[in-house]
Amino acid sequence: MRAYLPVTAEEISNFMFTESMECGPLYAPTIKFLTANNDMDDEQGEYILSMLAADEALEMRTNPAGPAFILALEVTDSQIAEHGENFINLLENARWEDVHCAFLVSPDGEELTWFATQEISQSLPQWLAT
């Protein structure tokens, strides 16, 4: 299952370094979400969930002009402790090995720029400097 975790650049840096991160809810296509939105296809559902994560990522910024980010993780059912309306909680810390990609959220929260996992470390110094 694809899940979206709103994060700061500092959290990305720490997550990469430790390869583990304690995190709160991740936005995900839970049974409740899929049932409530059964008229949408998978792509539309993923878009809505990523936009919810983008809104939260913008709120998490310490500098209102700074960048906001989302990490997309692939999680298995065995990693999930709880399913909510549109989120999951993990049994244990998130693992860096489960990160599929990162998204840079535009300042207005309307667009996401995709970064492959190998591009994250290359872009991180710039993200941390802003």
- The count of β-strands is 9
SS class: alpha+beta
Q: What is the overall shape? A: globular
Helix amount: 25-40%
The stretches of 5 or more residues where confidence is low (pLDDT under 50) are none
Question: What is Rg?
Answer: 14 Å
List the helices and strands in order: EHEEHHEEEEEEH
Report on the biggest sheet. Answer: 4 strands, antiparallel
> Can you tell me the number of structural domains?
1
Strand order of the largest sheet: 1-4-8-9
Number of discrete helical segments = 4
Measured distance between first and last alpha carbons:
32 Å
Mean pLDDT: 95
Oligomeric nature of the chains: single chain
Q: How much of the polypeptide forms β-strand, as a percent range? A: 25-35%
List keywords for this structure.
130 residues, 4 helices, 4-stranded antiparallel β-sheet, 3-stranded antiparallel β-sheet, alpha+beta
Report on this model:
This protein is of the alpha+beta class. The protein has one domain. The chain has 4 helices and 9 strands, in the order E-H-E-E-H-H-E-E-E-E-E-E-H. Strand 5 and strand 6 form a beta hairpin. Helix 1 crosses helix 4 (117-129). It is globular. The mean pLDDT is 95.
Please specify the SSE layout and strand pairing.
Blueprint: E1 2-7, H1 9-18, E2 20-21, E3 26-27, H2 31-36, H3 42-60, E4 68-74, E5 80-83, E6 87-90, E7 94-95, E8 99-105, E9 112-116, H4 117-129
Antiparallel strand pairs: 1-4, 2-7, 3-6, 4-8, 5-6, 8-9
Summarize this structure briefly:
The protein is of the alpha+beta class and 130 residues long. The protein has helices at 9-18, 31-36, 42-60, 117-129; strands at residues 2-7, 20-21, 26-27, 68-74, 80-83, 87-90, 94-95, 99-105, 112-116.
